Amino acid sequence: MRESRKRAVKYFDARGINPNTKPEITRILDFNPIQTWSQSSDGTTTYPCTIEIEAFLFYMHLTVTFTDGSGKLHVFEGDSGGVGIGDLTAAGVIYFGSLDVLLKATTFGVAFGAEDGGVVQVTWGTSGNATAGGVGEGLGAFGGSGNWSTS
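User: That's the sequence. What structure does it adopt?
Assistant: Structure tokens below.
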């Protein structure tokens, strides 16, 4: 079992969630995970990031990791309801207008598609977005919540 899958199983177990059963209706994606930035790049900060997804049919575990310009590691970990299955580990870019605003964001949407390789889009609405391409298989669209940690 992949390390990210083990971490996702442990995450759901700690919350008493069986990720293979249909979720509460409040955990289903309630907005489209689309880019919300304007065409202009003025005022947008970007950093390389890594996105890991483990989808369990009706639930998904998400981890987004990046290091800012001062060397601080930021990790977003969350879960969401939706429909999908599979996994994806992808290197990409996270982009946002304000680091403080991004790190306060808790709700997110995600869409991914992969077969041997794939793409993923994560959005925290107007707080920030992350886009990546990587290795995986499966597809899904989810929406949920999580938290940022910094070290």
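The beta strands are 45-67, 73-96, 107-123, 129-150.
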